[in-house]
Each structure stands twice: as structure tokens, then as C-alpha cells.
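Incident log entry.

Two folding requests arrived from the same account within the same minute. Monitoring flagged them as a possible duplicate submission, but the sequences differ. Recording both here for audit purposes.

Request one:
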Amino acid sequence: MKKLSLALAIAAAFTATAFAKEVTVSGEGKCLKCALKKSDKCQNVVEVKKGDKTVLYTLTGDVSQKFHGELCQKTKTVEVTGEVSEKDGQKSIAVAKISYKKKFSGSPSDSKRPFHALWNGLLHLWVR
């Protein structure tokens, strides 16, 4: 009976990790201590806006710790990929990847026609 219980416990552990879902979220990366003043020690967090609500995810793991110098004392738009968990109402992400969220710097018409800006620039040089 003990062997069966042990086998079921091991199977349950593997099943839970096999179905853990990796997600990617984008939002404002900040330091919980320096930017939000909600902790006694530095901790990376990302604030994700979903409609009218803002969800705060605590970022954990080595990848997050190595990236902390980029977020401490500064707020940056980041994209975080990892496994989400929740404990006592606080959501956290075990970070697998974190990077700056790239912002499109052109006009809205340029996003629909990627060569439009290039063409206008070349045309402007030719007309001179």
C-alpha cells in the first residue's frame, strides 16, 4: 500500500509540472522597493494592465535577479515569459526570459506599409 501511495504521489508531481503553463506578459517592469515602496528589499515586479485593472506579478528566479540592475530605480516596458503561480493572492512568475518591449517608433501608416517611410525618405533626397 505504501508503494502505491508513493507511486501516486510521484505521478501527481510529474502531472502538475507537465501541465504548468508558460505565459508571456507585457507591462511596466519596476522594483518593488525603489519604485513602489512596498518592500524592505529589492524585488522585480511587472505591472500588467488588463482593462480597468492592474495586475502585479512578482518576478522570481536567476533570470529576474540578473535583470534587476535594469529595473532598479528605473521603470521600463518589458516582456516576461515564464510560469505563473499564485500564493496568498499574490501572483508571481518564475522567469525564463525577460527583455525590453520594443516600441514602434514610426507613424501608424508606416506600420501598415513598412517601406512607406523609406520611400518618402528616398523621394525627399531625390527631389533636392
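Request two (distinct sequence, not a duplicate):
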Amino acid sequence: SECGDGARRWPRVTQNGCAGTAECDDTQVIARTLRWMERAVIGLNLCPFAKAVHAKGQVHVAVSHASGADGVLADLQREMQDLVALDSAVRDTTLLVLPHALTEFLEFNDFLDPAEALLDALQARLDALAQDGSARVVVLTGAGSSFCAGADIAEMRSASPGRLGRVLASLDALPMPSVARVQGNAFGGALGLIGACDIALGSAEIKLAFSEVRLGIVPAMIAPYVVRAVGARAARRLFLTAERFSGEEAARIGLLHEAMPSAALDSRMATVVDQLVLGGPQAQVEAKRLVSAVVGRDPRQDAGVRGETEAWINRLRTSVEGQEGLTAFLEKRPPDWTR
């Protein structure tokens, strides 16, 4: 399908998929867009991505419905063959083959930075999970060899951090339990995602780093979640040195709850998720609120905290879920939320 008017217009890729070309005289626009896409999609590992760049002039976009990186690459090769057959000037064409999943949240006609589009998509999913409330556990992970490679450095000079801040706050405020499955390396803002999750499990062999000071900036947006997890002392060292540390060290300081060999990660994740779904859904919502309500308060000096916690347990003890849980225990049967 042809997309109309102007050098910076891209083909709109619909949910059903399409292939077409769009004129683009500004080769820097093409190069910058490719860099955004590569960083956002490969760096964040949200879905497999393949591309072949043949310099300048036009952009040819096709959609792949393959489920994995090998399938996307095969589709890329087929598209290349088709282009060569149709156009002897293929060397002046940039070819993009996009996984179908990516087309659900990239809006090419608006020339939107894909990194921002991905954060918007994650924000929308978190908002939907919080509003619906039916999910029992949310697992956050990467799809490739890295958990998350951090932000696009080239775009950080002008990009607003507001999107990341909203995502972190929404992840932290999810009513249901959240678990970070850190299967690969994580840098910069990725460590904020880990800190914002209720539980974090990871591979012992991975590398992590707060690299911001080496860029002349600080990990400001992620600091509240990281410092809460590791404490001020450990945060000062890692923020200041920007040194790389292992998953095993991340577990020692509290950024991860557990670190294990990569081969054991999924088995341990399954065990943790199985344990979580045994708890009462509303009790878990209240447990997260309870921690926030009492942190930093000393009951010896704060009489209010004693009254609040007493009222809390009395309210839940007499709730429908509380009565079901207590009755199920006395009757030696599973509570209804586990069925």
C-alpha cells in the first residue's frame, strides 16, 4: 500500500499485515529510525527483529507472522529475493521485516520513536492489568539473551524521562504480585524495573550495572525503587562506580531475591508462581498496601501504627475472603480461590 505525502511518511502496517514502499529522501531519517528500532526491539528484547539495510532512497516494509527470530530471518531473506526480482535498484532500498507483534504498537505514520512506543505499550498493559484485576501474578522478563539493555543513549540527550517514570510507578503499584525473571544482562533503567517488582529472581551469571555516571548523568528515575531494594550504602557504591556486578552479587545486596544457574531459573520461577497463587487475591493486595503503610514506622513511638494494623486484621478477618480462608483451613480443604 502506498502512503502519501512527504518524505517522512511511513507505511502504516495494519494488524493483518501489508507490504509497501514509502519515499524518504532524508537518509539520516532512515538511519535514525533504524537505530531507534534496533535499540528498542533488540535492546529491550520485547520481540525478535531482523533487518537488512541497503543504503538510501526508499523503505520497503513487510510483516512477518513467524513466531521466532529464525522465522523472521527466513521471511527477511524471502523479501530480499522478491525485491531483487522486482527492482534492479534494490541497493537503494532499505528493507525492514517486522514481527507481527511489533505492529500492534508501532505507529509509523506518526513517525513515533519506537522506544517511546514500547514504553507506551507497557504502560497500557500495566493499566489494563490494574483495572481488570483478574490476573493472579504478573511476570516481567526479556525474550532474548538480555533482560533489558537500557535506554537508547543517542536519544537520551533530548528524550523526556516521564514515560519511564510512569511505567515504574504503575509497575510498583500493581495490585497483584509482580515477579521479575532476570534471565540476562540488565543495565541502567532495567534495574529500576527489577526494583519495582515485588519479587526478583535471576541467573547468577548475568551482569548488571548502573552506568549513568559514566555518561554524566544519574539514575534518578529508578533511584527510589533501587535504594528501597538495596539500601543507601550499596546504592552509593554502585551509583558512584558504575561497576558491573553479577547476579549473585545482586542477590547478596537485595536487588534480586535469589540468583541461581540459568538452567534452574524457570523451574524456580514456576515454584514461586505456584506459591503465589495459593494466597488469597485480596489478601495479597492488602499485604502490598500493608508494607507501604508500616515501612519506617516504629510502633514504640507511633501509637497510630498499632491502631491501624489492629483495624487492618479485623477488617480482613471478617471479609468474605478471610472467612473463606479460615473456614477452609478448619475444614481441611483448599480455599475456593485455588480451584
